[in-house]
Amino acid sequence: MLVRESFVFKKIISFYTPFSLKRSLGSFAILLFLVGGYYRIFDDAVCLEGNCKDSLSKIQFRNGDIYQGTFVDSKPQGFGAFWSRKGDYYQGSWFRGMKHGKGKYVYPNGTEYVGDFTFNKKEGTGIFKWADGSILEGSWIGDHPQGQGVLSLPGSRKFIGYYQKGSIYDGEGVFIYSDGSKYLGSWKAGMRHGFGVLVAPGGIVLFRGMWENDQKVPGSQPFDRPGIGSSTSVDKLEEGKTRDKQTSKTIKKKKGN
């Protein structure tokens, strides 16, 4: 193993000795600087393979994290893999020691992100997968989903809509329930809110009107059609979606880590 060398150890005495008592404050400041340099060196990484400067190498940091890949000017650049002592794993492109370009990041809990990185942040186009099988595909800015996105949930449920500053279900969007029925309209904080249309699996409009906090606003009447689409049919359909209504609370938590 090769530990990076420094001139600090050789220079501590020669820098400190010449100062007189009149310059004690200055000498003390210099000493603190040098001691800080010592601890910085002590914290420095250990090169396990290669020279860790300008070639394919492997390096281990004092905290236990490991990087293996290409180096340029003593920093990870190009393609490489990173393992943290906490269990995180990243494989992909690097630039000046930062995740930059295409890559895959796997978290200790099993969730993972595959897509674009910009200076250590998820930014660009990417896919985020949760351990339960949920998948979010879309655009990212500053580590958060932003803009058009598609969220696929277990049970063949899917949400197609707009993400604002990482919040799910804000703006206009479509939610496809497990039975094939759909809600098309406005969302706020993960709930149906504003004007929206509820459509049966066969395409028949069951309800068209205003919603507030995931509930139909009194006075907004559904389209009454014989047998299907009547108020009773809508109520029964809503009762059958009791578990699906809980989705908003669950999905609200499903944001990029």
UniProtKB/TrEMBL annotation:
Top-level taxon of the source organism: Bacteria
Keyword set, alphabetical order: Cell projection, Cilium, Cytoplasm, Cytoskeleton, Flagellum, Repeat
Region listing for Disordered, in residue ranges: 217-257
Pfam families named in the record: MORN
InterPro entries: MORN
Keyword Cytoplasm: yes
Stored SMART domains: MORN
Protein name as it appears in the record: Membrane-binding protein
